[in-house]
Specification:
93 residues; elongated; five-stranded antiparallel beta sheet; 1 helix
Amino acid sequence: MYADRNEKLNFEDNHMKTIMKIPLVLDPQKEGGWTITSPLVPELVTEIDELDDLNSRIHDALAAVIELYQDMGKQFPANLRADHGEAPVSTRH
């Protein structure tokens, strides 16, 4: 059982804000909390104990992935940029 979420994240780089929509998979763990991954960004893996921590943890993990991509000279998937009219978070059951 897992929750699948799309998360909009704001990143400021050189005074420009970029909004990305990233599908997230929240996989509950037996010992509590969730492991979070993204099918479109395989390097994105993190864990949370409380759902309240989701936004900050994903923001930090994604910033690390973006830095990794830059260090490797790899392009971040352009199709993750969000349309401005979309809801910030949607949940699929």
